[in-house]
Structures are given as C-alpha cells and as structure tokens.
Amino acid sequence: MSSIPTLTTPPTPSFQPSPSTSESPRLTSLIETLHLQTHIEGGYFVETDRDSHRVPNPFLLQEAIAQPAHIASQTAQGKHLTRAASTTIFYLITPKSPLGAFHRNRGRTVHTLHRGRGRYVIVHADEVMGSYDEDDAAAGGKDGKKARVETFVVGRDVEKGERLQWIVDGGKYKASFLLPDEEGGEGSEGLLISETVVPGFEYEDHDFMRQARLERLVTAEQAKELQWLMRKDS
Asked: Can you tell me the distance from the alpha carbon of 24 to that of 99, in angstroms, rounded to the nearest whole number?
C-alpha cells in the first residue's frame, strides 16, 4: 500500500543501471544527433532556444525581501535585472540514466512529450511554504500542514490517462523516472521531451530538494517512499 495518492503500491524504479550499463545503439545515435550532454539532474539535455527578448526579472522582488543587502549589491552591478522571455530544451532519460532527481525552478515549465513513457512526482511545496527561500527548519505549512503530492504517467495512451503535455509552476518540486515503453513490458528506448521555461531558465533559479526539506514537506511515510528520487549528494 502506498501513502502517495492514486498509487496502490509505492513507486519503484523500473530500471537499475550498473557501471557496465550502456546505451542502446538507437539511443546513442539520438544523443549524438541532438548533441545532448549529461544533465546535473540525471539524464541528458541540450538547450535549443533562448529568446533574445529580455523581460524584467519577476523574481527580483522575492529575493530582495529575503536577502535585501545581497540583492542590492548584485543589482548595483547590473545583475539579476532581466531574464530571457523563455528558454527551451530537449530532455532525455534512458535505461542507463533513468532518473530526473527532485528539483524545482522559479519559472513555470511547459513539458511536451516526443516519445517514451515515464512517471512524474510533484511535491506542491509552493502551496504550504511561507516563501520560496524559507529555510529547511521552517519549510512546511502552518499547523503542521503537509504539501500535496501528485503523480502521473506521461505517454501516448491518453485514453488511460497518460499525458502528452503537462505544466509545472514555479516553486513546485518535481522528479521523473523512466517506465517501459509498453505497460507491463521491460524495455525502453528512452523518454524524450521538450521543456519550455518562462521566464527563461538560469541556474540561479534552480535548486535540488534537500533531505531536511523533504521530511518537513511530506509525511514520514511519503518521505520514505520518495527517498530514492533524491539526488545522491542532497
């Protein structure tokens, strides 16, 4: 029995890569053709578009409230003031690198499926945290309220509820892991998607889930079930 809503059993990895695991010839060709490189979250990526149009940084006020002295210093140097209107990447997870570890972005991310199947787990931290930069000791809702945990499968079988497109708003933690190409099957030629971030992605707008924060945001049972989706050094 799972403590995650809509799941009857705890989420578990479908693929267990070892040091000797290698990508299939088809995946190797895809990685080379798309010029993909390894991603810090797991899997592979390449940025395909960065809008030349710049927009005011909507996160600046949030940061200024949390760290006024630091932001004042940075803005005096002309930093943080703008973002690209949007950025887009290809993102791929494979049997060799089947996990996108828990992380969040400040910006809104639109995901579009190209091929394959996977499961996403979303922790709606923004619904219970007092601020984006709230420290781990305080992260969590008033009166001990826990963050909502959502999970869904992305794939082409829309009649069974699989999603072709999904949106994750800023401040929510997400993780993804590879599923077999066919339900009940064993093999996969990878989950390939596009992600468009609005406003455009910058690494300073990104962070990984930390163990202390996970334990504050969700129940003890959920934290135990989701532990394997954490980045190993978090």
From this structure: 17
